[in-house]
Structures are given as C-alpha cells and as structure tokens.
Design brief:
Number of helices: 13
Structural class: alpha+beta
Largest sheet: 7 strands, antiparallel
Number of domains: 3
CATH architecture of the largest domain: Alpha-Beta Complex
CATH class of the largest domain: Alpha Beta
Helix content: 25-40%
Strand content: 15-25%
Length: 444
C-alpha cells in the first residue's frame, strides 16, 4: 500500500510579513481550519493560534491586543493569552488559583510558526511541534539577496480549489492565451516540450526545452516555482508560488517574484502599482476559466476519471499529468477535509456573478498592506481635489473684478486640471482595487 501524504504535517506560508498588522489579530483559513495571526507586544515574531477561545469557542480573531499586557484578549469575556497560548487572565475568576491550576485545560491551541524569506510560516498540525522543528521549510533558493536577487511578494484568495491552482501554475502553455496582453501573446504561442521529468513522493521537477533553460519544481504540498535563465550574462528570473488549500473550492496563492537584474526599477515601482496593473490582472485572466472548469471536472469524475475527462495529447500537458498521477497515488485524489469535520467535500455551487468571482478587494486588497494604504491615500486625495475645486470656484466668484481678470483664469485652470486628476483617480485608479472585469474576447 502506498504511503498516504499528510497535508497537515507540512509548512505553509500564510502571508508576506509586510502585510500583517501587529496592532490587531488577523484571521486566515488553512485546510479548513480557522486560524488567527497575532503578535505580542513584547515579542518579535507572530504567533498562530486556532481561531477559538477555549472558554466558549468565540473567534479570537475578533479580539484585540490588550494595551497593558500586550496579550491576545478574547472580546467575548476578556480571557487573555500570551504568546505560548497560556491563559493569563480570566476576569470572572473568583480566585487566582483557578487559572494556575487549570492552565493545560484553559490554553489556546498554538501552531508552530516561523519567519523566513519575508513570509510567515505555519506548521498545520498543532500536535507535532517536535516534527515541525525537525522539518525544513520549503524555501526557494531564488529568494536570496546574497546571490544578487531582489523580489516582491503578493497574496490573493482564489475562487477555485487547491488542486486546480497547482495544475494551473504547472501549465505554462496557457500563458499566451489566458494572459494575452498582460504576460503573453496569442500569436507567439509555440509547442512546449518537457524533458528530464522527475517524479517522486516529495518532488516533481521538469525542464522546458527552450532557449531560456527553464526549470519547474513542485515540492508538495505547496511550493511550485519556475527558475528561468536569460541569455549568457547570468540573468535569472523566477516565479515562486505557494499554493495553499483553504476549503473546498477555495485556495490562496502566496507568490514571490525574484530576479537578479533591473534592480533600480524594482526599487522605484511601488508594490501596490505592480499589484493592480499586473499581478491581479494575471489571476483575473484565469479565475473564471478555472472556477467553471473544476466544477465540470467534478461532474465528469462521478462516472469517469480525469484521464478520460481531460484530453491531453501533447508534451505541454506532461507536468499536469504527473501532478494528477501524484495526487491519485499519494493522496487518493482528494484533500483531507474529513479530518477537520468537513464531511461533504463537494465544491460549492458555481458563482454566476462575475464581480463576486473577480472581487479584488475581498481576495487581495484587504490582505495587502501596500494596497490598503494606497487606497486610503487615493480616497483622501480625491476629497482634497474635490474640495479644492469648489473652494476655488467660490473664491474666484467672490474676487473683485480686477483680481478675477488677473488671477481668476489661472486659478480656474489649475482647479479644472485638479478635477481631471480627481476623475482619473475615481474612475480609473480606484476601481482597480475592487473589481475589473476580465473578458478574453475583448483583449485585442
């Protein structure tokens, strides 16, 4: 009997560290488990708890960081927990001994966590901390400043399942079509040939036979990365993705984009601008296709396997085939939802509303500190420009005739330019933090 892959006894990156708010708890879901990320004031590292207060199971993510103690406080009855999960205060306790004598029973469930490569990592099994300490993180060798790399990070929740996400990222042949005009060109699509495909329980790796010397590596359950060499001058470009199973029909991608060239451009382009113009657009190009595709596959798999439901005759499909074989062989073709009490692993119903499927705010902006702060600034700037326009109109109207002729026209021109900038912010820039429809037939 083949060994069963344990999704829980593995490390997953929940979020880029720069996106976390040390002043309040952050909820996140992994493998169907509600978790809460928080940081005690007196410590440097973030902690990850099960998002349940042991008292009455209220979500700790609705709590707060208590100002005096720096501990995590449940907002329901005020129980407090330190960085180790130990209950430090029960306001309703008649005697202090009640806490000290029942610490093992009153503690929060703590998951092993670490900081590395600018990401917060969690071990998804709270009951095996020793194994977590002995298991290396699935780090990318490309996230290495000592080798001349710079990188940016990105996170987004997705309206399709984990296996669909892995399958999609492992398929470079879709890029010229799904991402036409963003990262690809339909007219330049060519056959893709994989060579030296290695497939083991712990690794799937392949090389693409092209002039870029591209290597694709999948280290289950989450690290899937591309390493690309450009030309003879040792330019290297990477795509490092971590594919997180959230719940049936939902996943999260945490991505990093390393390169060892164009470092000045990397420093000059704001992170949020890169997100709204490129990163979100790339995922928008796949979202509706994959949301519908996986539901059709699920229907077909009731009577047949993926091997006959899919038609994959070319070498370009080889890595997808290897992943599907790995998933069948070591995972039984399914994720372990039953272990967290999700008895029905069927996908949720199809979402017909495109704005819901492509909801950038819910899926990305609210999780990304750079985009959140940029959106706040854009809204404040709009208010300033609008107020400036109307104040200028009133001031010019009240000016004496001689001053109006001398200064009024100039002031109105400046105000109208400001109003035009306001319109650009309101009608073009701000929507990119919320929703931009992606219609493939409208991409020239």
């Amino acid at each position: 009997m083949e060994p069963e892959f344990n999704f829980f006894q593995n490390w997953y990156p929940l979020s880029p560290l720069e996106d976390l708010d040390p002043k309040k708890p952050t909820p996140v879901t992994l493998l169907g488990m509600g978790l809460v990320i928080w940081k005690q004031k007196s410590t440097e590292n973030y902690q990850v708890f099960l998002d349940q207060c042991p008292h009455r199971l209220a979500p700790l993510s609705e709590g707060l960081i208590e100002k005096k103690t720096g501990n995590l406080m449940c907002s329901y009855h005020g129980w407090q927990f330190d960085a180790k999960g130990t209950c430090t205060r029960i306001p309703q306790a008649e005697k202090p001994e009640l806490i000290t004598q029942n610490q093992d029973n009153f503690c929060a469930v703590v998951f092993p966590s670490r900081h590395a490569n600018d990401l917060l990592w969690v071990w998804a099994d709270a009951h095996s901390p020793q194994l977590a300490a002995q298991t290396p993180l699935p780090l990318s060798p490309q996230i290495d400043a000592s080798q001349g790399f710079v990188w940016s990070s990105f996170v987004r929740d997705l309206e399709y399942d984990w296996q669909t996400l892995v399958e999609n990222v492992a398929d470079p042949s879709h890029v010229p079509f799904s991402h036409h005009g963003v990262q690809g060109n339909r007219e330049r699509a060519n056959p893709i040939t994989f060579s030296n495909v290695e497939s083991t329980p712990n690794l799937i790796q392949a090389m693409i036979e092209d002039r870029l010397n591209s290597t694709i590596t999948f280290e289950p359950p989450c690290r899937l990365e591309y390493a690309i060499s450009i030309g003879k001058d040792q330019k290297r470009l990477g795509l490092v993705t971590y594919c997180l199973p959230v719940s049936p029909g939902k996943s999260r991608i945490v991505a990093q984009f390393p390169r060892n060239f164009a470092k000045t451009l990397h420093a000059l382009v704001p992170r949020w601008w890169n997100h709204i113009t490129i990163r979100n657009s790339v995922l928008d190009g796949d979202m509706i296709l994959l949301h519908y595709q996986e539901r059709l596959l699920q229907q077909k798999q009731r009577t047949q396997s993926w091997k006959t439901a899919y038609k994959m005759p070319t070498s370009a499909d080889r890595l997808v085939i290897e992943f599907r074989k790995w998933f069948d062989k070591y995972c039984g073709g399914k994720l372990p939802w039953q272990e967290v009490g999700i008895t029905v692993a069927e996908l949720p119903p199809m979402i017909a509303n495109r704005q819901e499927i492509l909801n950038r705010y819910q899926q990305h902006t609210q999780h990304c500190r750079s985009c959140r702060n940029a959106l706040k600034l854009i809204k404040r700037l709009q208010l300033f420009l609008l107020a400036d326009f109307w104040v200028t109109v009133v001031v010019v109207a009240l000016m004496p005739d001689n001053l109006r002729l001398e200064w009024g026209l100039l002031l109105m021109v400046i105000a109208i330019v400001g109003l035009g900038f306001y319109s650009w912010l309101k009608l073009w820039l701000e929507p990119r933090f919320y929703f931009i429809d992606y219609v493939h037939s409208e991409k020239p």
